[in-house]
Amino acid sequence: MKFLLDTHAVLWIAESSPRLSAKVRVLAEKSDADDFGIAAISLLEIARKAQTGEIDLSPDGATWLDDLAHRFRILPLTPKIAWRSVQLDWEHKDPADRLICATALEHKLTLVTHDKEIIRWGGVVVLW
User: Fold this and answer.
1) 126: region left, alpha or beta (phi > 0 left; psi from -120 to 50 alpha)
2) pLDDT the model gives residue 124
3) How far separated are the first and last CA of the chain, in Å rounded?
């Protein structure tokens, strides 16, 4: 595994969104699924977005998330990641973003993200 996908990157790859950068699009097309991981918190973020109607996970959300877990490796929330997320030298308070960044750092992965706050912070290697 080389890359951790931020939540929006997971969704945009799944739908082949034009919002993906050319670099990420090529990476997603040419890399093995084993090259990508997803932080467990992203599953919650995706489920919440589906529940509020922001996204559609047809035919049903549980099946969609289960299929996702077969396409990419889901990295669990561990005590080390939880602790690392609150120790980050970063004023950003979003717990999901902090956990995603801590997961990337803990596993020494490049984070695939378009998130301006994460990029501006610079505490994790980012690809976009």
Assistant:
1) beta
2) 98
3) 17
State phi, psi for 7 to the nearest 5 degrees. -55, -45
The two structure tokens encoding residue 73: 């490796």
pLDDT tens digits for range 38-84: 999 999 999 999 999 999 998 899 999 999 988 999 999 999 999 99
Look at residue 128 in the predicted model and tell me its pLDDT: 96
* Domains contained in the chain, number: 1
Given a contact cutoff of 8 angstroms between Cβ atoms, the answer to whether 85 and 79 are in contact is: no
Token pair recorded at residue 52: 């509020």
> At 120, which CATH number?
3.40.50.1010
Taking alpha carbons only, the member of 60, 47, 123 closest to residue 88 is 123
Domain enclosing residue 110, as ranges = 3-127
3-state helix, strand, coil split of the chain in percent (to 5) is 55, 10, 35
